[in-house]
Design a protein that fits this description.
Elements lengths: L2 E3 L6 E3 L6 E5 L4 H12 L2 E7 L5 H12 L3 E2 L8 E6 L11 E2 L4 H11 L6 E5 L10 H9 L4 E3 H4 L1 E7 L7 E3 L5 H11 L5 E5 L7 H8 L3 E5 L5 E5 L8 E3 L4 H13 L4 E8 L6 H9 L2 E10 L2 E9 L8 E2 L4 H4 L3 H9 L4 E4 L12 H11 L3 E5 L2 E5 L8 E3 L4 H13 L4 E4 L11 H9 L1
Parallel strand pairs: 3-16, 4-15, 7-8, 11-12, 19-20, 23-24
Antiparallel strand pairs: 1-2, 2-24, 4-6, 5-6, 8-10, 9-10, 12-14, 13-14, 16-18, 17-18, 20-22, 21-22
Helix pairs in contact: 1-2, 1-7, 2-3, 3-6, 4-6, 8-13, 11-12, 11-13
Bound molecules: shikimate-3-phosphate.
């Protein structure tokens, strides 16, 4: 295998062959990293963050918060990050447009945070991908609390603008199980009058609930499936110490690569194993992937452990539906690659949310893997993938999507013949060391 970065459009050449072996520490969880910065910013006193993901997306969150007067120490690999909180209502009106880059989490959670900052004006935008992503799903529930978000196409698309107002509590049922919608409402609820309850159709990732509790918010969670999350305002947040586990969404690339590439044996260390995120492990078990969890423990309110995976000769096709979707939403691109190498046909349904991620991931993965000879039929809410157990090297393109770039890298390692991946640097959005880790696991 040659990994060769050949030009400014970040075209990488990948030749298959060989195995992946050794230990890898994936970078910090992206969702937890954003939240640690945001909650630290609106707390009283200092928050320290260990293991923050030093990638483009959390850097966008930090850049926006700095523009509103929050002091955040430089974000560098391996450094403890310090956030000097300005308190619940201390964010200043920024002089500049808040640039959220490629990060949907930054834009959506900031909307929740800013809509209640009375009589201050905020304008938010992002790159061409983010400017195409739906934002009314945040604006609508915030309107129910007395807020208002303006944007293109009647508030659907950025650039967006907000003039903060005093909000009131509400009971809000969210139409999709989205942690971003839930988190935006809970951030708005911190300064809304009274009590706010969010009811989800299915349980999305619960990092916000766990972390708000740790920062001292008055938050209660009840029910099992489709939880009720209730937040009562009036409590100030207190700066705390956050330890960010490794991102299971980044670990998923090595889990699948280790299972599919002959003679591989990889240990992925310190991975977050929050049960709202471990759908990929449930599916790995169904597929017959040979993996086990080691050193399981709880660190700063989140379960973590190491994942050891070895080559697994025979893998069975699997099904993904709307029940499991929230627990593995970001892992679908790499699971599509895995499905190409399974015995039988994989059916993915209930996945229309994939169409409004950084790219339309159902369309882009189908288009790119079809160039490699995959047998995929695209449906409105999912895919049907026939496991042909073989791909052919091709010239593919991430279309600027970080998870597509990394999924295509693993597909290229498994293909017959050389592949090139255009816009491979998209990986830096969530995994800055991806290409280096790949080269190291190969050697
Ligand atoms: C995220 C929630 C998910 C996920 C995204 C990060 C978060 O999005 O896909 O990468 O940090 O809350 P949705 O809330 O839109 O499902």
């Amino acid at each position: 295998m040659i990994i060769n970065n050949t030009s400014s459009t970040s075209i990488r050449e990948i030749e298959p062959g060989g195995s992946l072996n050794g230990k890898v520490k994936v970078p910090g969880d992206k969702s937890i990293s954003h939240r640690a910065l945001l909650f630290g910013a609106i707390s009283e006193g200092e928050t320290t963050i260990q293991g923050l993901l030093p990638a483009e997306d959390p850097i966008s969150t930090a850049r926006c918060l700095r523009s509103m007067g929050v002091n955040i120490s430089p974000i560098k690999q391996g450094e403890l990050i310090k956030v000097q909180g300005v308190g619940l209502d201390g964010l200043q009106e920024p002089e500049k447009i808040l640039d959220c880059g490629n990060s949907g989490t930054t834009m959506r959670l900031l909307l929740g945070l800013l809509v209640g900052r009375e009589s201050r004006h905020f304008v938010l935008t992002g790159d061409s991908s983010l400017r195409k992503r739906p934002m009314k799903r945040i604006g609508n529930p915030l309107t129910m609390m007395g807020g208002k978000v303006h944007g293109r196409s009647k508030g659907e698309f950025a650039p967006l603008s907000v003039i903060g107002r005093q909000l009131h509590g509400a009971v809000i049922g969210t139409p999709v199980a989205s942690a971003q919608i839930k988190s935006a409402i809970l951030l708005a609820a911190l300064t809304a009058e009274g009590t706010t309850t969010v009811i989800e159709p299915a349980n999305s990732r619960d990092h916000t609930e766990r972390m708000l509790k740790a920062f001292g918010a008055n938050i209660k969670v009840s029910g099992e499936m489709g939880r009720h999350i209730t937040l009562k305002s009036g409590e100030n947040l207190k700066g705390t110490k956050v330890i960010v586990p490794g991102d299971i969404s980044s670990a998923a690339f090595w889990l699948i690569a280790g299972a599919l590439i002959p003679e591989s044996d990889i240990t992925i260390e310190n991975v977050g194993l929050n049960p709202t995120r471990t759908g990929v492990l449930e599916i790995a078990e169904q597929m017959g992937i040979n993996f086990n969890l080691q050193n399981k423990k709880e660190v700063a309110g989140e379960p973590v452990g190491d994942i050891n995976v070895v080559y697994s000769r025979y893998l069975k096709a699997f099904n993904l539906d709307n029940e499991i979707m929230p627990r593995l939403i970001d892992e679908v691109p790499i699971l599509i690659v895995a499905a190409c190498f399974c015995e039988g046909t994989t059916q993915i349904t209930g996945a229309s949310e994939l169409r409004v991620k950084e790219t339309d991931r159902l369309k882009v993965m189908t288009k790119q893997l079809t160039k490699m000879g995959a047998n995929i039929v695209e449906n409105p809410d999912g895919l049907k993938i026939k496991g042909i157990r073989k791909l052919i090297g091709a010239d593919v393109d991430s279309e600027t999507d970080h998870r597509v770039a990394m999924s295509l890298a693993i597909a290229s390692l498994l293909a017959h013949g050389k592949s090139t991946i255009t816009r491979s640097d998209a990986a830096y959005v969530s995994y800055p060391e991806f290409w280096n880790d790949l080269a190291r696991l190969k050697s």
